[in-house]
Write a structure and sequence with these properties.
100 residues; alpha/beta; 3 helices
Amino acid sequence: MKIDIRTQEHGVTVALAGEFDTIATTEMSDRLNEILELTDRPVTVDCSELEYISSSGLRFFMQLKRGSERRGGSVSLVGLNEDVKEIFRLSGFCNLFDIQ
């Protein structure tokens, strides 16, 4: 799992690549705090290179959403492939996130 966090004037882009499984979630918990420090601005999560997401990965997205909303920010997801989009749909997360 790779993560790239880019801060721009109008928001933050978080690019994810690889498999977001239980092992990756453990690594990502450290990066979550880094992202949450920037969530007073809109956060766009680029999932175009995300191959798989487990329930642990979904928990990361929920923590990101809650932390962002507490600070007045928002989270949008872009580039979900069909498999990842199906996991979001089956879990009901499609109703919780702005997915483009």
